[in-house]
Specification:
The chain is mostly helical and 236 residues long. The chain folds into two domains: 10-89, Arc Repressor Mutant, subunit A (Orthogonal Bundle), CATH 1.10.10; 116-235, no CATH class. The chain is built from 13 helices and three strands, in the order ααβααββααααααααα. It has helices at 14-23, 27-44, 54-60, 65-71, 87-90, 92-113, 123-136, 139-149, 162-174, 177-188, 205-209, 211-218, 232-235; strands at 49-51, 76-78, 81-83. A three-stranded antiparallel beta sheet has the order 1-3-2, with no helix packed on it. The protein is elongated.
Length: 236
């Protein structure tokens, strides 16, 4: 179900009062126009950037609303583009992911906790093996696995930043090597993530390693779009 994020204190924000003053309207009208505007933006943009001009916004709100948004710094124009600053922080797919990720991650971890090893006699051995394995699992291993799994459709990792180390550490804390390998292989078979979309966007290592993205891929959220990679000998 489609939805947008609206803060409880929206009607009392300074920018909303400024919109009311500029347009000579009431707070409730300004909020209504803002909601219509954000719904439209959510339906037509993934990152808050759209081809067009302020007249498009006026058409779905009221005359002068687009200009007023630029006056309060909630909208900017750049050539033939209109841009919503901090769109990904408040609305769009990333904001929705942040709003739901905590619960999804908690559910995933709870699910794993409910299925511990069932053979008591093997616990100590399995624990020792896990400790040894964890010592081998590090940032470079995961980067190498990504680059080796890559079929040339996605950008390879050339450098490991502090941000990437944090992403990797978080994934290693919750998921197994098999989980990681499965996700890396799945990404190669999802057309949307390999550039088959209007913007020619491709999934980066950073995107895949975000916990919410990782879980969605692992749990089959994109499985309906998967197209198996055919080997060369299969094409002959």
């Amino acid at each position: 179900m489609a939805w947008i994020k609206v803060e409880h204190n929206l009607a009392t924000k300074v920018e909303v009062f400024q919109l009311c003053r500029l347009l000579q309207i009431k707070n409730v009208e300004a909020v209504g126009h803002l909601v219509n505007f954000w719904i439209w933006a959510d339906q037509n943009s993934e990152d808050g950037q759209m081809i067009g001009d302020l007249s498009m916004i006026d058409a779905i709100t009221m005359e002068g609303f687009g200009k007023a948004l630029t006056e309060v710094n909630w909208l900017t124009e750049d050539g033939n583009q209109i841009i919503i600053p901090n769109f990904l922080l408040h609305n769009g797919s990333s904001a929705k992911r942040r709003a739901t990720t905590a619960q999804r991650v908690a559910n995933f971890r709870k699910k794993k906790t409910l299925h511990p090893p069932c053979n008591p006699s093997s616990v100590s051995i399995e624990l020792l093996e896990k400790i040894r394995e964890d010592k081998k699992r590090n940032t470079n291993n995961i980067v190498d696995l990504w680059n080796e799994t890559n079929q040339g459709k996605l950008p390879k990792v050339q450098a490991v930043s502090a941000k990437r180390k944090t992403l990797i550490a978080k994934i290693l804390k919750t998921f197994t090597d098999e989980d990681i390998k499965k996700v890396f292989e799945k990404v190669q078979m999802i057309p949307f993530m390999t550039g088959d979309n209007e913007r020619k966007w491709v999934a980066s290592f950073d995107y895949v390693m975000r916990e919410d993205s990782f879980i969605k891929i692992l749990e089959g959220g994109w499985d309906s779009q998967i197209k198996p990679i055919r080997k060369e000998w299969e094409l002959k």
